């Protein structure tokens, strides 16, 4: 990744885009600068962003007054922390008062901040020098910590660099360790030796950070273009083992790079990528061997253990209920590749769709990613994927029974309510799956089938 052909022109255009906003603050005698990621990305030739961050010497209540007086929609999403959001056309901007200090209490998602009046002081507290750049109304670059040089050298370091300074910045907000890994994954840049050593020294500080913030950064890292680099750096520093202790054997066996490479072979789907990491982790932890799908799944930890592991990680990282259920299904129910070699008939396809629900295709993507030791696996999963998509497009795979069936079975067959009735309904659903009974049959057809069987 190189700087764009004429970075100065890109910055001028960026300043012009928000000219009216700059002018609003200037008329009130206040300074306003576009800062952080949008400046970095513009220098790299990427101008496609959904939001933009600004820094100002105006206090939050003053920023709110200036924006509302101009008729802009405002959202005081973090006024206590100095941040006011506003909508300019279809673009969200966040305007934050200069800060000289920002620190997080253990387990908190909300920082304790101290406002200041210096742009340089504000930039100096940011996580990386590449994110500590700003531009003014005219697109003039303000780069007190050589972020532009860091972009050219493809390195990641904190403003001012140095081991002690880096330790101090990481201890102010230990989540920055995960952010550094995320930027290594996103940009393919290498953290400097001082950055890496400081991360090793401060990794235990991650335990002070809320698990929701862990997940936010890990989600972003797993979806990056160079996730293998970011994960490898986290493992090298020991930070990965802090947030996910079960990865210890994975790291010891040198499998993290392999896992990272397999992530890149999956679609940009967050739960599939989490499942790649977690499947490797649970198998390696319990077998002390690298994951190898060419060996029987009987050598793996059993399905309940894999499911319980997925559930435990989901709790640790505060997954949503839907995310938890997804990784439990994928890790617990992953099929043996040998079962994919036979041609699946329609009943088998239906059972797969019902068993995995919306994850029916995801589990095939997971197999493709981790099945690098199984010759021809992608051919089998590809054929199965096409068959599943085709079946789902022409019929409802779920077995449907008529309303009032339970009452009819009780009245006409004298079947007692309770386990016997539930068993009869289950047999009817199995008959539909096996195509021995048409889907969504009427009550007479159900009773007739039960009498005959």
Please characterize this protein's 3D structure.
There is one protein chain. The chain is α+β, with helices and mostly antiparallel strands and 453 residues long. Among the domains are: 1-153, Beta Polymerase, domain 2 (2-Layer Sandwich); 405-452, no CATH class. Helix content is 53%, strand content 11%. The protein is built from 23 helices and eleven strands. It has helices at 7-17, 19-27, 37-43, 60-69, 119-124, 147-153, 163-172, 176-187, 193-202, 211-222, 227-237, 239-243, 248-252, 256-263, 270-287, 303-316, 321-333, 346-356, 362-370, 377-394, 405-413, 419-433, 443-452, and strands at 32-35, 51-56, 73-78, 83-88, 91-97, 99-104, 111-115, 134-135, 141-142, 155-156, 190-191. The radius of gyration is 28 Å and the shape is elongated. The model has no long low-confidence stretch (mean pLDDT 90).
> How would you name the CATH homologous superfamily of one domain?
Beta Polymerase, domain 2
The CATH architecture name of one domain reads 2-Layer Sandwich
CATH class of one domain: Alpha Beta
* Tally of contiguous helical segments: 23
Q: Largest beta sheet, briefly?
A: 7 strands, mixed
Rg calc: 28 Å
What level of helicity do the residues show? 40-55%
Percent of sequence in beta strands: 5-15%
What's the end-to-end separation, in Å? 68 Å
CATH topology description of one domain? Beta Polymerase, domain 2
Strands in their spatial order, largest beta sheet: 3-4-5-2-1-8-9
List how many beta strands DSSP finds.
Answer: 11
What would the principal axes of the Cα set say about the shape?
elongated
- Uncertain spans, ≥5 residues at pLDDT below 50? none
Quick check: average pLDDT?
A: 90
Q: Helix/strand/pairing class, anyone?
A: alpha+beta
